[in-house]
Amino acid sequence: MSFSGDVKNQLCQIALSKDCCALAELYGLLLFATVFSAKEIRVVTGTAKLPPRIDALGRRVLQRKGLEGLGLSRLPFEKSPAGQGKITLSLTDEPTLHGLFSLFGYEPDKQVVLHLHNWHMEEDCCRMAFLRGVFLTGGYISDPERDYYLEITTPHRALGREFMALLGEMGFSAKQMLRRSSSVIYFKESEQIEAFLTMIGAHRAVLTLMEAKVIKDVRNHINRKVNCETANLLRSVETGQSQAEIIRAYLDKFPLESLSPPLQEAAHLRLQYPDESLSALAKMADPPLTKSGLNHRLTKLMKIAKEALGQSKE
How many Å apart are CA 89 and CA 207, to the nearest integer? Predict the structure, then answer.
């Protein structure tokens, strides 16, 4: 199962709270479904626990209208690759649709314009329930081990804009784009995703995301450290080889005895171990030197050698 599917199954196990919250969750769930019209409501989902969740919400909400429940019909399985693993639920019963739309604040006998009715979300608990419903049908979240990304999709652009405004009122900084004919509202910042998941009650998913962040941060820190050490090692090797080349060129023209004993030892060590670091070379000296002590000798040796080679070329 995908991470997104696992999160949705977790959300479907949250206990139904007050009647107003049940209505708000069902409103968000159906409003962001594949089809939401006065003639049909259709939900296409790959979440196994969502159909029972919808049934439970429908029974609780429609009791106000004297109806037993939604009575969603499960349509035949689509054989196309895009439909694999999906469940399609459809509601076309006119009295049930009229009852639902009246509860949601629409007039089913007229042209339904899908505006967001915020009076369903006057309380904080109802807003949380509404967002949970929206995510259950219109949401997707990527596996945090790969990327930080959460999106809400709706085929209704005006509804997408109003939902963006609602998120802004709630303190979220979402972004919006068009994908084919649908409006996509999305988050790419891990902190925003954590806040959204916390609000809708996906606490296990928040812990998973936070754990993935810690692992990524540690891995990135180790990679940066390794890269830095590798770069330092390469620079050290290049410097050592360059010093060895200059010393060889000097000794081709001048005897080793032209140098002082300390510089002779430094030249001998660098020629014998051109790839070693200063620290390693310093320990090989007799007696051992400090890194700065050997560096001082090699710097002096390079100056003498370069000046001598420059004079010889003239």
Answer: 32
